[in-house]
Every structure is written in C-alpha cells, then in structure tokens.
Design brief:
The protein is α+β, with helices and mostly antiparallel strands. It is built from eleven helices and ten strands. It has a seven-stranded mixed beta sheet, with helices on both faces. A three-stranded antiparallel beta sheet has the order 2-4-3. A hairpin with a 2-residue loop joins strand 3 and strand 4. The protein binds adenosine-5'-[phenylalaninyl-phosphate] (FA5).
Length: about 325
C-alpha cells in the first residue's frame, strides 16, 4: 500500500504541474484528491487494517494528500497569475530603472553652510544630542531656576540629562577641551518642548558659531553674519539686527530676514504681527560668566557667538511654506530638491 501511495503522489504531482488550464487542473484534482479518487479510497480502507498498519499507512497517506493539496494550490496560483506554458518574457524590452534616492534637503544645506564657513576660517565641531544640564544650561549662564530656561524647554531623560535644546552646548564642550583662540561652527539636531506650527517644530537643526580671540568686536559679528547671509540668500538679501536677550551673550541680538513670501507685508509664514520679518538666528558677544564657567579669563579674551535655525533658512530660500513638510516624508515634496 505504501508503494501505491508513493506512486499516486508522484503521478499527482506531475499532473498538477503539467495542467496548462483550469479545466485540466480540475480533472487532475478530481482524479487525485476527489471523493472518488484512489487515494481517498485507500484512506477509507484503513479501518480494515491492524492497528499498527493503520497508523503507519494512515500517516503516509495523509502526508501524500497534504503534499498534493500543496501542489494543487501552487498550480492554481500559477494559472491565476496568467502564466501560460511556454516562454513569457520579452528579453528585448528595456530594463526597469531602479529609483535612485538622494540626500535630504536639510542635510545638503548643512553641508553647504559648513562650506561657506570653512571659507571664512571656521572648522566644524560636534557634540552629543543627549546632553548634560551643565552644558545645555548652567554653563551658559542659565543656572537652575533661571527663567530663560522656560523659553527653550526640552525633553528630559533624567533630572540632569536632556535632549539639547540648542547647539550652544557644543560651544561649552569645545571651550572646555581647548585653550583660546577658537573659531568653530557646530551643526546638529536640537529638540524643544514646542507647539508645532508652520515655523516651529519639536525637532529641528541649528548651526552654532563661536569665535574667541584677543580682540573681537560686535562689528566682526555683524560682518560675518552679513557675509554669510548674503552668500546663502544672494546679494539682495535684506537683513535686520534687533536687540534680543540670551543669557549667554551681552549684548544679544536676533537677526531677521525680510520675508520672501510677502516681501515684508506680513503673512501666514512670517506671522501677521511680525511686520514681514522672519527671525533666523540669535547672536551676541559671549558673556563673561560663560568664559568663567569654562575656565577662560574674561579680562583677556573676547568672543562672539551665533545660532541659526537651518529649517527656517531653507524655508525662506526654497519657498517651503511649512516646516512640517521636511519631516512628513512626502516624496512629492522631497523629490523637488
Ligand atoms: C538659540 O537657540 C540660541 N542658542 C542661539 C544663540 C546662539 C544666541 C549663540 C546667541 C548666541 P533661539 O531659541 O532664538 O536661540 O533659536 C535660534 C534659531 O533657531 C531661531 O532664530 C530660529 O531660526 C530657530 N528656531 C528656534 N525654535 C525653533 C523651532 N521650534 N522650530 C524651528 N526653528 C526654530
């Protein structure tokens, strides 16, 4: 009986594989798996065998049946897919071009910014995204309880460890690790506990700049930022310095660009109360307390620092009306750049 089951298994397998249409497959099914098929008859006859034989032959027959059901399913899938016997591929057709990806716009702009500052003598420094409270706040003249911490509230890993809310923390790390002079930029991702809207995200990018030397003035800061912004946006760019408060600089300024969308009238992007200006960076002269925190002598050294929001720069230059578009992974947006 075992031999007969094996023979039926082989014949059935071949019959299903050779079926070229649905009718042939149905007749093979009836012949090998139908109620009146030989295999079904064999299974019915098991009851006449001794218990030992019944177990051995029954297991063998059930395996063969399961195998043939699998072959039937494969043949059905093959016919449903329309694969007819015979050659089906036209090897003369042109090949399908695999889609090629490219870098994200924010990433390539970061590299471009690094290039502009490299030309102005700045080297690139990096620091961790997960930062100590000391580097993110305290050493930047914002001790615990300082009200300015609330304006850059972030996400905390523990009481003393947070996701950095700005790249200014890298200033501290660099000054702690080397004596002056310093001339660096620090590009990187930053995080804020922020209500998201067209110009605010909870995760975005900044580029920090720091220059420390014997004789550095506010005029040097204005000069370098004017140079950078005109190189980035073009020589016609209209820039405004307005007094602003950051605890780690004195004096401090915010640098605004005239909105490219409304040409200074005020719109949904720059905000109806902005007067048509969009803030793109903060800057100022390094506060003596910051120098003291890192062990630099504030009587001997002077410096300026700035921090710019990369997404805001890109939105203005490329006409992207909503910061969320950078992070929704909509290929219709990303493929444009
Ligand atoms: C700072 O983060 C300061 N650390 C910058 C600085 C460095 C000042 C050195 C002085 C000296 P501010 O919070 O203003 O400052 O952010 C800097 C820039 O980041 C803003 O001008 C803006 O362009 C961008 N920015 C701020 N918050 C967001 C946000 N939620 N989403 C997108 N961009 C933002």
């Amino acid at each position: 009986m075992i031999e007969r089951i094996d023979a039926l298994r082989t014949e059935g397998e071949r019959a299903f594989a050779d079926s070229g249409d649905v009718a042939a497959l149905e007749s093979a099914r009836v012949r090998f798996l139908g109620r009146k098929s030989e295999l079904t008859g064999l299974l019915r006859g098991l009851k006449d065998l001794s218990p030992e034989e019944r177990a051995a032959v029954g297991a063998h027959a059930n395996k063969a049946r399961a195998h043939l059901e699998q072959c039937l399913a494969e043949a059905e899938a093959r016919l449903a897919g329309g694969a007819a016997p015979g050659p089906t591929r036209d090897v003369t057709l042109p090949g399908r071009r695999p889609p090629v990806g490219h870098r994200h716009l924010i990433d390539s702009v970061l590299e471009e910014i690094e290039g502009i500052f490299a030309g102005l003598g700045f080297s690139v420094a990096e620091g961790p995204d997960v930062e100590s409270d000391w580097h993110a706040f305290t050493a930047l003249n914002m001790p615990e309880g300082h009200p300015a911490r609330a304006t850059t509230d972030t996400f905390y890993v523990s009481r003393d460890v947070c996701l950095r809310p700005h790249t200014s923390s890298v200033q501290i790390r660099v000054m702690e690790s080397q004596p002056p002079p310093v001339r660096i930029i620090c590009p990187g991702r930053v995080y804020r506990n922020e209500a998201v809207d067209a110009t605010h995200h909870f995760e975005f990018h900044q580029v920090e700049g720091l220059y420390v030397d014997r004789d550095v003035s506010l005029a040097d800061l204005k000069g370098i930022l004017d140079r950078f912004l005109k190189e980035f946006f073009g020589p016609e760019t209209v820039i405004r310095f307005a007094p602003s408060y950051y605890p780690f600089v004195e004096p401090g300024a915010s640098v605004d660009i005239r909105c490219f969308f409304c040409k200074g009238k005020g719109c949904g992007v720059c905000g109806p109360l902005s007067g048509g200006w969009l803030e793109v960076l903060g800057a100022g002269m390094v506060h003596p307390n910051v120098f003291r925190a890192v062990g630099y002598d504030p009587e001997a050294w002077m410096g300026y620092a700035f921090g710019m929001g990369v997404e805001r720069l890109v939105m203005l230059r490329h006409g992207v009306p909503d910061i969320r578009m950078f992070y929704q992974n909509d290929l219709r947006v990303l493929r444009q750049f």
